[in-house]
């Protein structure tokens, strides 16, 4: 391209020189002008071609950049999609696990309440006890009466080692105690429920040759696992003879009780 331009310029210069040296050059002058126009036209065409080429290159570059950007966005969108799906799956799984855990807790709570309700409406078994033969025939004030021989102990609520009855159910109970006291003696005693008296009684025998036994009943409400016992409050003796007497064939000192109904 450059060679063509140089050649054309040289030709123009030659023609100009000839016109200057020749007095008559009208023909050459016309051709010179024509050639000059052709050269300018060719230069313009080359400039347009260059501009078009640059524009095409810019368009190609822009299209390439757009394609690259499109690919980048596609990758970004795919990544975001995968991330969103993964996050959604994770959230769903965590929610599912949480719901399952809560259902387990509710099931355990339901089972606990069902058991509690079942226990609350359960019909209590028969609770009945009777014991005799006091451990001490001459009790002292503040002492718990211990009846050492079990006659009946349905429900195993009476303990012959310490004389204490432990209520297996909350409800109404009735208790009976009988003391056979020598003449000239006085015994004050109390029915104790959870270390609180719910009945106090006295047996007082004046000097006499007659022997007698006295029985007392007491009814109260006892809560589950509370205890009931007979406690000596006060003892007075007019003589040194034992206070209590018992005959295997004729009279006994006894302590008994039974469960009446739940509340």
Describe the structure.
- There is one protein chain.
- This protein is α+β, with helices and mostly antiparallel strands and 263 residues long.
- The chain has two domains: 2-68; 128-262, Jelly Rolls.
- 14% of the residues are buried.
- The chain contains two helices and ten strands, in the order H-H-E-E-E-E-E-E-E-E-E-E.
- Strand 6 (185-193) and strand 7 form a beta hairpin.
- Residues 2-8, 10-15 and 17-24 have low confidence and may be disordered.
> Could you tell me the strand content as a percent range?
25-35%
Q: How many structurally independent domains?
A: 2
Number of strands: 10
Strand order of the largest sheet: 2-1-10-5-8
- Alpha-carbon distance between the two ends: 121 Å
Would you give the CATH topology of the largest domain? Jelly Rolls
Average pLDDT confidence is 84
Over all CA atoms, what is the radius of gyration? 62 Å
Specify the helix fraction band: 40-55%
Q: Helix- and strand-based class?
A: alpha+beta
Report the sheet with the most strands, covering strand number, pairing sense and barrel closure: 5 strands, antiparallel
What is the number of helices? 2
> Mind telling me which CATH architecture of the largest domain this is?
Sandwich
Shape: rod-shaped
Low-confidence stretches: 2-8, 10-15, 17-24
